[in-house]
Amino acid sequence: MRSRKSIAVLAALAFVVTLMTAVGASAQGSSSAKLVPVPQGQKLKAQGVVSFRSGDSFKVRDPAGNETSVLLTPATKVSSHNRGLKGKKDYPVTYIMRGLRLQAQGTGDADGNLVAEWVRFDEQDLRSAQALEQTDELAKDNEARIAAAEQAAREAAANAERMAGQIAENTALANDARAKAEAAQAQADSAFKSAALANNRINGLDDYDTVRTIPVLFKVNSSIIDPTGRQTIDEAAAWAKGEKAKGNANGWLVEVVGFADTTGNTARNRSLSERRSKAVIQYLVGVHNLDLRRLVQPFGFGESKPVADNKTAEVRAKNRRVEIRILQNKGIAGTGD
Questions:
Q1: Helix or strand holding residue 153 (H, E)
Q2: How many whole angstroms separate alpha carbon 224 and alpha carbon 26?
Q3: Is the pLDDT of residue 178 over 90?
Q4: Does residue 222 or residue 196 have the better pLDDT?
Q5: Which residues, including other chains, have CB under 8 Å from residue 298's CB and lie 6 or more apart?
Q6: What CA–CA distances, in Å, run from 104 to 36, 49, 76, 290?
Q7: What is the per-residue DSSP string for 53-68?
């Protein structure tokens, strides 16, 4: 009876080792790629995903599997694509990493490399590549755990073979190995969940929620804040300070936008709306010590974007306004989907 139990334990351990070895071997496969040299002196734009990065060079692989070797120089301009009114954002060359989808334009050298004039990428693709890099680190950590588990299984099998008569001890070793494997898997699951949460917060850094909009009204052809307007701003500032004391102001920005009614010409109304927005900002900074880092650059829309038509005096009074918009960054506040 003891001999049969020993054989059963040995067979089970051998099966575990075989299965783990097969999984490791299957994970080593990768698709082949073809390096395509760039003719010397030819200007070319390469587009694809970074498959390799080393020092001042990297390779870009297109969907067909063709790779272009790209060289970076001190003159290479690295930036994001145009972001509308915000324009392009410059980045150091260290942001070019494996898994980043990008475009590179330059000229071929004598060795078939593309000497890059500029490299551009989408900021969303940058965040995805950064998240991929974190996941890759977790995968390497898991590979180390699997290797350690395989070594423990091999040692357990050797011990079982040498000490076939000690069934109770072998059973205890097997149970211990199973518990460690379950604990390692639970730790890996927790790490992946943390990486997913971090990725969501990164994706939320360009998204904002409007917390509150405070309208400040002005008189006809005036950019001076009257007593009613000052009271409106004072009440809003008191509310904001209370929210900050409660810890609810993480990731807040203040956007100040001016408007006008249809009285006067368009150019004059736009200038008037800008003066109104600047007057509100001066009051917020001078009276309530608003941190300048919290302010978005002011803008005047003039008579565009009215809250209603300008057919009556009552409605025109509502359009002569400055909107103080309190925005909250989803990524900093931890509210990204």
A1: helix 123-162
A2: 73
A3: no
A4: 222
A5: 256, 257, 258, 274, 277, 278, 281
A6: 15, 11, 10, 42
A7: EETTEEEEE-TTSEEE
Separation between Cα atoms, residue 294 and residue 252, nearest integer Å: 7
Q: How many helices (H) and strands (E) does the chain have?
A: 7, 11
The DSSP annotation for 205-269 comes to: GG-EEEEEEEEEE--TT--S--HHHHHHHHHHHHHHHHHHHTT--TTEEEEEEE---SSS-HHHH
Residue recorded with tokens 């102001």: 249
Q: Which two tokens stand for residue 182?
A: 């379950």
Give 330's Cβ-side CA count (13 Å radius). 17
- Report the pLDDT averaged over residues 288-313: 82
| Cβ burial, residue 160 (10 Å; 0-12/13-18/19+) | buried
Count the Cβ atoms, other than its own, within 10 Å of residue 51: 16
Q: Measured between alpha carbons, how far is 107 from 52 in angstroms, rounded to an integer?
A: 20
Q: Which residues contact 88 (CB under 8 A, 6 or more apart)?
A: 79, 80, 81, 82, 120
User: What's the predicted TM-score (pTM) here?
Assistant: 0.39
The answer to whether 276 touches 221, Cβ cutoff 8 Å, is no
Q: How far apart are the first and last CA of the chain?
A: 59
pLDDT tens-digit profile of 88-138?
899 999 999 999 999 999 999 999 999 999 999 998 999 988 888 777 666
CA atoms within 13 A on the CB side of 101: 9
Q: Per residue in 60-72, pLDDT tens? A: 999 999 999 999 9
CB 280 within 8 A of CB 233: yes
The residue to which tokens 């059973």 are assigned: 171
Strand runs labelled E in 77-122 = 77-80, 101-108, 114-121
* Per-residue confidence (pLDDT) for residue 336, from 0 to 100: 56
Cβ–Cβ < 8 Å for 206, 228:
no
Residue in the block written with tokens 């103080």: 324
90: DSSP letter = B
